[in-house]
Amino acid sequence: MMDVTVENFETEVIAASMNTPVLVDFWAPWCGPCKSLGPVLEKLEVAYAGRFKLVKINSDDEQQLAGAFGIRSIPTCVLMKGGRPLDGFMGALPEGKVREFLDKHLPSADDLEAQAETEEAEELIESGDVDAALAKLQEALAINPANDDTRYDYVKLLISQGDLATAEAALAPALAQMPLQLRFEALHHWLLSLEFATTDERAQWTFEQFDAAIAQNKRDFDTRLAKARLLMAAGDWPAAMEELLEIIMRDKAWNEEVARKTYVAILELLTPPPRRNAEQDTGKSAGGIELSGKTLAEQDPQTEMVSRYRRKLSMALN
Q: Which of 31, 174, 186, 259 is catalytic?
């Protein structure tokens, strides 16, 4: 437990909640219920062993923070996650009710262990030790098979390393989910393109052969799709999307909209993950506190390309 003021709010609450949920306890020295709730929260912070961080804000001394969160009565607790308020409660709840609230939102012990394994895997990937990274991700998935983030990272790395059979098996549980997550559908289309490049007889064609066949019949969508899949397998994403656009513009519904679905899959694969401090782009914290020295980051080339091809798809569909 620690006391937070406007001076350390950004570091101890906003930034800290990017990695670990932060429970903010708004209290005041004269508040009787606050005095009974405080020890309960401190006890649970210890009992939960790092699953959340507890901070206390004196609402009398820190009226700017209390106002930013719209505090009307105390005690009020707000759970912060990813830099933003997730949920909260008012009043001096008994320990059992506070536990119910925390268990509803906090990661389990298995989640935390799997997350630690996944973070180690990311470090191993950056260092170039892909085999060790795969082992870590496999171990994390064994600990918590329901962790979709770990499954996504594991399958994506397997595909990138060409282990298509293992990737297909690991992806299968995610493809059975309803509704199907777009990111897993995207991996499925990538996997299909790589399997196509190793099994279909047209994988031996040159791109000139594809272009000659298409020139004879511009509505030869099967050949266009085959070419797009080979371009995907080769990592030439813009060229693959251009070929898919030709199908979409001529017949959006062809073959159960496979061209549109494949195009969207490429966009999903290319979209950079959200920045952890994305809330800072507005110049304000998640609680509405004005920040200084914050500027909008320029788009990187890949983000710009994804935006451009999203616009192309929108125009083709309208």
A: 31
Q: Mind listing the pLDDT tens digit for each residue in 233-269?
A: 999 999 999 999 999 999 999 999 999 999 999 999 9
Report the distance separating Cα 171 and Cα 104, nearest Å. Answer: 27
Q: Respond yes or no: is residue 77 known to be catalytic.
A: no
273 Cβ neighbours under 8 A, 6+ residues apart: none
Side by side, the strands of the sheet bearing 22-27 are 2-3, 53-58, 22-27, 76-81, 84-90
Long-range contacts from 60-66, C-beta under 8 angstroms, 24+ separation: 60/28, 60/29, 60/30, 61/5, 62/4, 62/5, 62/6, 64/6, 64/289, 65/4, 65/5, 65/6, 65/9, 65/287, 65/289, 66/26
pTM (predicted TM-score)? 0.68
What domains can be seen in the chain, in order of their start residue? Answer: 2-109 (3.40.30.10), 110-177 (1.25.40)
Q: Which of 4, 13, 23, 34 is the catalytic position?
A: 34
Rounded Cα distance between 58 and 74, Å, is: 10
Orientation of helix 148-160 relative to helix 130-143, angle to 10° = 150
Helix (H) or strand (E) holding 211: helix 207-216
